[in-house]
Specification:
Radius of gyration: 24 Å
Helix content: 40-55%
Length: 417
């Protein structure tokens, strides 16, 4: 009888070769990081997920500080097609968890001791009751000033000690042929400045009363009028081309010396670092001026939606582990401009601005000056935060009087209660 083994073996090999390889499980991640430094930082997470054997399906939706992404998510959920994971800021993750569409990550939390490494101020934004529903990757400080050192030297100015000095310095920058302040007209960009003014002029206690507790007396006070009066002076430092300008474009204006300053969170620093600039040599970083400095914080976190595919669930677990990995948080934040969300990680090899932020955070915790950034949803609930954004934006682009702005603010908050 003829030996059939070689023929059978050859046939089996051909059949195996013809079969498709097992498809890589890809996790779709929605986010709004589209700037150069943001994309570079996110690549740290992507590569770490790949090292665990999972692919990354990128769904980036830029604009409106995540507002456009939230609209896209609503459409996805309405059609029964949730992404695997999503970047959250403010109350977003908690609100979606209340809708019953988020997974809880309690087993992973218990196995890895994550909660003990998360700052207490952050927990209300990543936990719904006893359930951990998101994992934070960073902590940003919002109330920074970024300045072009050469422009400051040209105008003969130093770091201002008060808002009055900052505004005077702006006039000197203009005389030197430099746009004093670079920014866009998006409500959240304007509110970044408003938040800083509320804390710097009124102090941390006033900030909490007005923007967190929504105290009517604080909202209608002379201090709040002073905040709007100062915001009007700040408007005088901005060029007429600010309509529709993205925050990263404004950062670029400071980087290239077209503008002297930008008031923006430390994600802007990522743009400076991406261009090879060095703090202290090429650009300056300092907190918005105040007698009682605060640390206005915000975080980015990742939550996981309920899915039916068990392989996607495993990929979600892998992403959560990646986000909370100490090395990933270290490498990500070095690029992003922020500091790690984990409180058990050192920043010894971070840049001088990050080290200053780390030190300022410790002082703010001691002085009760850790303030959730209202502009990014870490103060009042969204229905109230929207009122602040709307009123501040209308005031900034019009000739509205501060008294009228305060009245509109009080009425808007009352109507939203």
């Amino acid at each position: 009888m003829k030996n059939l083994f070689p023929a059978v073996l050859a046939s089996s090999v051909s059949l195996i070769a013809a079969m498709p390889a097992q498809a890589e499980v890809k996790l779709e991640v929605m986010h709004h990081w589209v700037a150069e430094s943001e994309a570079a930082a996110l690549n740290v997470v992507r590569e770490a997920l790949a090292a665990k054997g999972y692919g990354w399906q990128d769904s980036a939706v830029g604009g409106q500080s995540g507002g456009n992404m939230q609209q896209a998510l609503r459409s996805r959920l309405a059609s029964g097609n949730p992404p695997g994971s999503m970047q959250f800021i403010g109350w977003e993750g908690i609100d979606w968890s209340a809708e019953g569409v988020m997974r809880e990550l309690n087993a992973l939390d218990e196995a890895n001791g994550w909660e003990a490494a998360i700052a207490p101020q952050v927990l209300p934004f990543v936990k719904n009751g006893d359930d951990l529903i998101a994992v934070p990757i960073n902590m940003h400080r919002q109330n920074w000033v970024w300045a072009n050192k050469a422009a400051f030297d040209k105008a003969g100015i130093d770091q201002p000690g008060t808002w009055a000095e900052l505004i005077e310095d702006g006039a000197k920058l203009r005389e030197a042929g430099v746009i004093p302040l670079a920014m866009g007209d998006e409500p959240w960009q304007i509110q970044v400045i408003f938040d800083a003014l509320v804390a710097d002029i009124g102090g941390p206690e006033f900030y909490n009363k007005a923007l967190v507790e929504l105290d009517s007396e604080a909202l209608s006070s002379d201090t709040m009028k002073q905040v709007f009066d100062t915001l009007r002076q700040v408007r005088g430092l901005v060029d007429d081309g600010f309509t529709g300008r993205d925050w990263a474009v404004a950062s670029g204006m400071v980087i290239n010396g077209q503008a002297g300053m930008q008031i923006m969170g430390d994600w802007a620093k990522g743009e400076f670092l991406a261009k090879g600039l060095k703090p202290g040599e090429d650009f300056l970083c300092f907190a918005t001026p105040s007698e009682t400095p605060s640390f206005q914080w915000l975080i980015d976190s990742f939550g996981m939606f309920k899915v039916t595919d068990p392989e996607v669930t495993k990929a979600q677990d892998a992403l959560a582990e990646v986000v909370m990995d100490p090395k990933v948080q270290h490498d990500f934040n070095l690029i992003k401009g922020s500091i790690p969300a984990r409180t058990d990680l050192p920043v010894d090899d971070f840049d001088d601005c990050a080290k200053k932020g780390f030190e300022d955070r410790a002082v703010a915790i001691e002085n009760g000056a850790m303030l959730g950034a209202s502009a990014h949803g870490f103060a009042s609930q969204p229905q109230f935060a929207t009122v602040f954004g709307d009123v501040v934006a209308q005031f900034f682009v019009s000739d509205m009087a501060s008294e009228d702005a305060v009245q509109m603010l009080v009425s808007g908050i009352d109507n939203a209660r």
